[in-house]
Amino acid sequence: MLLPGTFLGVWNLISISNEHSLSSLSAAWIQAHGHAQIFGWIGTFIIGIGYYSLSKMGAIPPFALRRGWISWGVWSFGVSLRWAANVSLWHWRILLPLSAFAELAAFLVFYMTVSRHRTEGARRRIPAWMLLVIGSTTGFLILLLFNAATCLWLAVTATAPEFPHGLDQRFLVLATWGVPVLAVWGFNARWLPAFMGLKPASERGLRVALVVCGAGVISALLGYFPLAAALLTIASANAAIWLNVFDSPENPPKLQGVHRSFPAFVRLCYVWLVVAALLSMWAAIADRNGGIWGASRHALTVGFLASMIFAIGPRVLPAFCGGRKVFSPSLMLAACSLLNFGCLLRVSAEIPAYEGMLQGVWHILPCSAIVELIAVSLFALNLALTLAHAATPLNDNNLYKISLATPGELPGQARG
Predict the structure, then answer these.
(1) Is residue 69 in some structural domain?
(2) Residues 35-44 pLDDT 10s
(3) Selection from 26, 23, 16, 10 nearest residue 161 by Cα
């Protein structure tokens, strides 16, 4: 799901740069790229992590685990159908609503599983990290209902499978700040104290961040974008502070199997989050041609969300797949570095290019897209090699064998 959206994004940006205009490209193609990235990649990631976590917590009985496979199959079918409908326009009046209802059906299977777990755990106080994940899950359901209703309306009344601009602006705020951002905050609160040696996140602070972020998303849905941007900026700053990501670690970080730069990249993600929020405040009052809004969304989706997955993924995904270490921490470093460099090029060039401030920077935009595509390819290659490699359980008996297979990749623990 990651590669089609990324490839289409590169193609879109090269086309826009050649014409020096955002209006030169079909909005359906741009929205196909965004849907594949947010729904196809990040959405699949959230649902998969959710099923895995519930199964490990004993909230899903063994006989019910087939729900995960049902969700995966129907969800993948729906997202792929949406990508194909927007790109090819072949029978899109049928395929567009069909894809939306397939996605909704797949998520409802997951949501019913989550709701059952919430009912069983209602007697005890819910920790803040779980409230964030619950808020993200609820936001996801609202987003999919919004998507299904809009796709059905477009199929009946529109001439192309394109969300109107004003509606798309509201949809994108919900699809980013209302779903994956909250999920990342929740999982970070759960994992980062162990991974980075930080003190536990503030329960009260995270609850405040959740409420303020929710108010920002609601404001955007009602069309009050300056107020929404201000609230989302406050929520972002609060989340970074109360997650303690910029504090000195209290314990040594657990870096077994990943590159030692892992904590630095996680902190850089939160820098991008605040940058995205500040740019949204600027965009709400000064954007004319989509450049500031585009830079804000790219800082959020690539600088924060994608970079977080690039950093966290090699740390958690191999363990989810049987206790393997990531194939190459060096590839992890290369992928994270290139993705952040490409994002920097894109965000710094998109505003002066789109807003007509500096024409020469149009040539930087395709370069940023190619750099990010290389980063995505390295990330995918690293995980593919991890899954294809022989199973290597994490125990003391085989650490020496791992160090021989990937020399220099496991400093410290391998030598031990």
Answers:
(1) yes
(2) 888 898 888 9
(3) 26
